[in-house]
Write a structure and sequence with these properties.
Length: 275
């Protein structure tokens, strides 16, 4: 239940209680209120009761679950298309993940694991389970789930890219690099796979490779401000002021301020000096 729903529920509940109290007063204590009769009060009370029920029902997930289905459509695909109850369990797990209640989200996802009948269902349940573990910073468990998906032929560029992040966090850079290469060679091409691998290579000090993959990412998604920022940083650190200025203009056009860009470059220069 979001904040607006909580406020509305509180208002409706207070008014409902006051109206019921007024009805009791009029009915049983011969309250003399000229403009208020039982005939007036009953429909108003009923209307407020319906309002309370509607708020509670909506907060239970009807509209919000549909929103999660739309938001994650490319990951859910046709999972549990023939079982509304199980689909709702999956969507509730996503909502819990969004609310940062990862343990409850995992419990719901684990309850679905044995009932997966096709690859779309296995993909969705496994992916979101791994993402939960990733948020919990249990990178070993997340990586193990991704590796299982790879073995079962369920992996796409997203999976390879995610496992790159896990291995990078675990300090297993060779495995991370191999996952990144698999991600950028997976079909169909995914800009985020190129972008993610470029940042990994940049962090590993391989600036030329990082620039190549960042440019490929930008070819696939020309307004990615994070990719543009990486190219700006690479050109600035490389002393190529003319190219850096072009990327600076692109970054600003896509929502990043010059001050932010300068701060990012200072951070990387400081980190390089410290190392």
């Amino acid at each position: 239940m979001n904040r607006l729903q909580k406020v509305l529920l509180a208002i409706y509940s207070v008014v409902f209680v006051l109206l019921v109290g007024l009805l009791v007063y009029v009915q049983f204590f011969d309250g003399a209120i000229d403009f208020v009769t039982t005939r007036h009060l009953v429909p108003v009370i009923f209307a407020f009761l319906l309002g309370i029920v509607k708020i509670i029902t909506r907060s239970g997930g009807g509209a919000s679950l549909r929103a999660y289905k739309r938001a994650y459509a490319d990951m859910i695909k046709d999972a549990f298309a023939d079982d509304r109850r199980k689909l709702n369990v999956l969507l509730k797990a996503l909502r819990l993940m969004d609310e940062e209640d990862f343990e409850k989200s995992l419990r719901l996802l684990n309850s679905l694991r044995e009932s997966c009948k096709n690859n779309d269902e296995r993909y969705a349940v496994s992916l979101f389970t791994a993402v939960d573990y990733n948020y919990l910073e249990d990178y070993e468990k997340a990586a193990a789930i991704y590796e299982e998906m790879i073995e079962r032929g369920l992996a796409d560029s997203r999976i390879f890219s995610n496992v790159l992040n896990c291995y990078s966090e675990l300090g297993e850079y060779e495995k991370a690099r191999n996952a990144g290469l698999a991600a950028v060679h997976a079909e169909p091409p995914n800009w985020n796979a190129f972008h993610n691998f470029a940042w990994f290579l940049f962090g590993d000090g391989k600036y030329e490779e990082a620039e190549d993959y960042a440019k490929k990412a930008l070819e696939l998604k020309g307004n990615s401000v994070e990719t543009i920022t990486l190219l700006y940083v690479l050109c600035t650190l490389g002393g190529r002021s003319g190219e850096a200025e072009l990327y600076e203009k692109k970054a600003v056009a896509n929502g990043r301020s010059k001050q932010e860009l300068q701060e990012i470059v200072r951070n990387y220069i400081g980190a390089g000096a410290a190392s």
